[in-house]
Amino acid sequence: MRGLPAFLTRNWTLKLSAFGIALLVWVAVRAEAPSRQTVPNVPVRVTLADPEWALVGNPSPAEVVVRFGGPSRDLLRMSVDRPTILIPLNQVVSEDTTVVLRPEWVRVHDRTDIVVEEIQPSSVTLSLEPIVRLDLPPALRLEGELPDGLALRANPTIRERELRVSGPRSRVAELDSIRLQPVDLGEVQESGPVTVSIDRNRLEGLQVQPERVQVEFQVEEAQVLVLEEVPITLAQSGWDEQWELSDTVAEVTLTGAPSVLDALNRGQVALQVTLDPADLPDTAGESRRAELELRGVSPLVRAEWAPQEVTVTRREEPDDDPGSGS
Q: CB-based contacts of 19: which residues, under 8 Å, 6+ apart?
């Protein structure tokens, strides 16, 4: 190598190797040298072993700052394998519990040479509630309609009258029933049981047993019944003296199970004006359109009627002048 002093070029490969070895030794020494590192946002978690209590929410605070000491190499690796604090809680003595954090609760994966020097804050507060157990009725939800040609003979019944729910006291107190997944009536083809699961959307943190129930359906081939001259009435008797209806009878078509239609009391079937009393016309000759509501028919029966609306008109006031007769 021309231009360089002889003492630099003589045995240059040997010198370069020696430099490389020295550099590796220096790096190894630096990696093993004691050092410190502060790690923020270390999550605090709880392992609760007392079956009669439940943790409500996260610890307060849910994250702490931990200062570690140990070899630089191991400390650097914590940027990938972040530490956590796991509190073992075997027995609960009160609903609000303050726990002093211990160094041995800090979990550092495969880092035996790392020492926990400080935790800030040094304690956290835990909110706990006793576990309560309550029997609640299942709530059935139906969607859609039965296939053409079928009708319900009776309301669907749930074999399991009550479900056992257990969980934190405040969560259980929010419930008055356990909702089931909706049942699509279009999938009911015949009489018999259908398995339905509970709806877990409102049940986070709660246990429910059983998680499935049997819903019994009773169906028959649908039958059509036509009722003519079904009376149309106002909400209260005597109102017809003040208001006049454009129609007083209607034709009603009922579709349902034969056993349900056979039990129908035709004398109680009527259509009633749904207009609120405050909305009735109060000036002579004034009119309002009003929808009709069917009464006296089982909700298991599908009904149609015509007309669907009537006109309600305020009658003219009677003439009280007896006139002059002479």
A: none
Can you give the pTM of this predicted structure? 0.67
The alpha-helical segments, DSSP class H, found in 144-223 are 169-173
Structure tokens at 28: 């190894």
> Do 194 and 183 contact (CB within 8 A), yes or no?
yes
Looking at this protein, which amino acid is placed at residue 256? G
Tell the CATH topology of 34-129: RNA Polymerase Alpha Subunit; Chain A, domain 2 (2.170.120)
User: In this predicted model, what pLDDT tens digit does every residue of 133-143 receive, in sequence order?
Assistant: 999 999 999 99
Fold of 137-221: RNA Polymerase Alpha Subunit; Chain A, domain 2 (2.170.120)
Contact between 127 and 55 (Cβ < 8 Å): yes
| pLDDT single digits (tens) 153-203 | 999 999 999 999 999 999 999 999 999 999 999 999 999 999 999 999 989
Cβ pair 140, 180 in contact under 8 A:
yes
- CA proximity to 114, closest of 143, 139, 155, 82: 82
Provide the pLDDT for residue 278: 78
How far is 148 from 222, CA to CA, in rounded Å?
8
Q: For domain 223-314, which architecture applies?
A: Beta Complex (2.170)
From the CB of residue 302, how many other CB atoms can be counted at a distance below 10 Å? 16
Q: Is the peptide bond before 51 cis (omega within 30 degrees of 0)?
A: no
In a 3-state reduction of DSSP, which class is residue 93?
Answer: coil
| Phi, psi of 62, rounded to the nearest 5 degrees | -85, -10
Q: What does the DSSP 8-state code read for residue 237?
A: T
Structure tokens at 310: 């009537």
178-179 and 138-139: which strand pairing?
parallel
pLDDT per residue as tens digits for the range 234-255: 877 667 678 889 999 999 999 9
Q: Which of 62, 66, 69 is nearest to 87 (CA)?
A: 62
Dihedral sign (CA 252, 254, 258, 262): negative
